[in-house]
Amino acid sequence: MSTQKNEHLRERKILVAQPIDLNGKFIGRDVLAIDTVDAGVGDTVLVMTEGNTARQILKDDKIPVNSVIVAVVDGLDVVE
Questions:
Q1: Sequence-ordered alpha helix ranges (H) in 3-73
Q2: pLDDT in tens for each of the 80 residues of the chain?
Q3: How do strand 45-49 and strand 31-35 relate by DSSP bridges?
Q4: Are 54 and 65 in contact (CB under 8 A)?
Q5: What pTM does this model have?
């Protein structure tokens, strides 16, 4: 819970997401993302990381956001 939040984000849940590779190993740096799918701790999620697309998904041009959680991933099949 933050002590101060942008007025356009007040009703939004912000989660910490960490990128993973195809084997589920953590890679890269954590990102803060607005949750749009009611994701929870331990869920594998799909994160959209492009500001304009994020604002379009949230349907609010005034939200200062770059990353949005758009799906919970149920499974992953790697085809080579």
A1: 51-58
A2: 567 767 777 778 899 999 999 888 999 999 999 999 999 999 999 999 887 887 888 887 778 888 999 999 998 887 87
A3: unpaired
A4: yes
A5: 0.80
